[in-house]
Amino acid sequence: QSQALPLPPTDQHMGGRGMAGMGGHGMMPGMGMQPQIVLLREGTDTSQGKPQLISNINACQAVVDVVRTTLGPRGMDKLIHDENGTVTISNDGATLMKKLQVVHPAANTLVQISMSQDAEVGDGTTSVVLLAGEFLREAKPYIEEGVHPQVIIKAYRQAVALATAKIDSLAVNLEQSGGEVRAMLEKSAATSLSSKLVSGHKQFFAKMVVDAVLSLDQAQGLDMLGTKKVVGGSLQDSMLVEGVAFKKTFSYAGFEQMTKHFKAPKIVLLNVELELKAERDNAEVRVSDVTAYQAVVDAEWDIIYDKLAKIVASGA
């Protein structure tokens, strides 16, 4: 006797891509489970093993070649035009990697290590991408010859231990205070600025950056430092504000007569509002005559006047 097996569901019944398999309904005794059939989109890469490793290395090399020419003080800037119409000109490795919109999973790891370097150190974002690309380039011939990736990784880890030990032997320890530390910090800042757009004024900005860092307490982090961009002027007009700076424009009537500069002022910080707050939507006030309504309005203004009087009395 023979028995017909049901056909697997078609693409239309599954809504496009999906998985189709023959279950146990209608199976003849003795027949095992049929292997699942995976339906993939046309053009999907299903390579595995050595070909996939080579493909990953080639994808990373393509990304490395983009940022290679931006390295160093003579590196060239890149102009990137994104889908929103925004034009970005930069030679910063982290900025370029972020703007490239890399889709390949393996090449995207280069973007991640560049972002990690920028977050942890703040410099060397292009160098770390080029180093990773060169490590992959050197490993490619061994992959093609059949060397297992774990053997290559083990060798790289031994190389890391040797390189770290050598760097530790070359390291120069500086005291926490003194002119020697400041000179070294300014040299480090100037070196980092050598490949940036402000490289022509690196000594000016290096001194400003070191002053800003040394003004912090040991318990304060670098997130306490910020930058404010002001349109107009030259790079030499930049200044370090030892305090708090707010980018605020005068937009009220009569601001021309307002004093623009105060010497040694007293500043009051308020956590209350100096304005009339609108009532809630479901609030309801019933008044019987006009005088009662005026009393409500006067009460609101009295609260504000009381706050203003206390501010004036404080001398701020």
Can you walk me through this structure?
- It is a single chain.
- A hairpin with a 5-residue loop joins β3 (78-81) and β4.
- 43% of the residues lie in helices and 4% in strands.
- By secondary structure, the chain is mainly alpha-helical.
- The protein is built from eight helices and four strands; from the N terminus they run ββαββααααααα.
- α1 runs antiparallel to α4 (125-144), α2 (93-99) packs antiparallel against α3 (105-120) and α6 packs across α7.
- Strands 1-2 form a two-stranded antiparallel sheet. A two-stranded antiparallel sheet has the order 3-4.
- The longest helix has 25 residues, at 290-314.
- It has helices at residues 50-67, 93-99, 105-120, 125-144, 149-170, 179-193, 202-214, 290-314, and strands at residues 18-20, 37-39, 78-81, 87-90.
- The relative contact order is 0.05.
**How many strands appear in the DSSP assignment?**
4
Largest sheet: 2 strands, antiparallel
Terminus-to-terminus distance: 102 Å
Sequence of strands across the biggest β-sheet: 1-2
Overall 3D form: extended
- Structural class by helix and strand composition: mainly alpha
* Uncertain stretches of 5 or more adjacent residues: 1-26
- Average pLDDT, rounded to a whole number, is 80
Q: Per DSSP, what share of the residues sits in E-state strands of 2 or more residues?
A: under 5%
